[in-house]
Amino acid sequence: MNISFIKTLLLALIATSFAASLIAFPQESLQASERGLQMWWGVVFPSLLPFFIVSELLIAFGVVKFLGVLLEPLMRPIFRVPGSGGFVWAMGMASGFPAGAKLTARLRQEEQLSQVEAERLVSFTNSSNPLFIFGAVSAGFFENVHIGVILVLAHFLGNILVGVMMRFYGVEEKRHTRSIKQPFLVRNAFRELHHSRLRDNRPLGKLLGDAVMSSIQTLLMIGGFIILFSVLNSILKHISVTNILAIPISYLFSIFQLPNELSIPFISGLFEITLGSQLTSKVSTSLLYQVMIVSFLLGFSGFSVHAQVASILAQTDIRFKPFFFARIIQGASAAFFAWVLWKPLYIKLYSIEHTDVTPVFQFNDSNPVVGYFHQLFYLGPTITISFLLLYILLYYSRHFLNKRNDY
């Protein structure tokens, strides 16, 4: 019996077990699906869609090439990636995962990155949306806007550390692109902008249609993964798999003097960070420990995001393994930075006594970031449905009308 046959049996067993669990726990599966759907169409879709569409247009108009020339002196020495990686990094930080993976794959398909450079870039350009950290995690789950500062700083410091460490990845392979000294940097950047736009000779209407179609297709895939892992997480909890996996984690936590009560939320967060962060906020323990666990989960991103990134990277020759190990490094480093920043930023800055009781603050709707996040829950579904209808119209006009013209 070879390994391939064993893998086939294992995959068939897992799929069958998952299907049987859906039948055994229909009510729990439905509730988990609704929770994932609400997160996707209320927050994820309307918040990511503008970034995806604008990114496609910026690439088509040559703006990414323009920025690539300007940012080459910064990105190449620090991260050993082309200057266009600076655009991916900025968009990834602003819009959240998996925008970094989508843009990296797009640049790889256009051969603006080598395989190794793309694997370096995708490892540190996928980060959590600051809006999600401030709005959902700190204000929504913890009812404490102040810890959002710690979470965001720890998250992005860990992100930068991963980028610097990944510059040593693939040093044995030859560089496919040379860094060329350009005395007239701005002039060369505008030249690249113009040449890149000329190479993409699609009319403006087609550019907009392609950007909308590509962005919505990616977001539909993301929504499917969010719902799938939300259901999977719920089923694992009800069949006590989460409790079994939490046993070795509790021993690991004891080494770092972390409470055992955080092991089950930690396991849930490894699959889906939203549920893991919510469960962590409900544990009665030191707020510092809660922030460290959530920082790790945000850095690791959860298997749901990993599946989304793997699906996007599968369209290219970019390998997933470097991304996976980079997520572990970022999770650990983010937890470490949260511990380092806790006393100078949280304890002293907000004059809060360091106790073992979790402080709960009155929710403040006046915060603009929090207010915008909660507005998405009201306006998000309308935006999502409107663009899905637009997608159907575009799909119909391109496929069915073209077939009619052929006849």
TrEMBL record:
Top-rank taxon: Bacteria
TM regions (residue ranges): 48-71, 78-97, 147-169, 207-229, 287-312, 324-342, 376-396
Keyword rRNA processing: no
Key words, A-Z: Membrane, Transmembrane, Transmembrane helix
InterPro entries: Gate_dom, Spore_IM_YlbJ
Domain Nucleoside transporter/FeoB GTPase Gate residues, every copy: 43-138, 219-314
Signal sequence range: none
Keyword Metal-binding set for record: no
Any Pfam family: Gate
Protein name: Sporulation integral membrane protein YlbJ
Phylogenetic placement of the source organism: Bacteria, Bacillati, Bacillota, Bacilli, Bacillales
Primary gene name: ylbJ
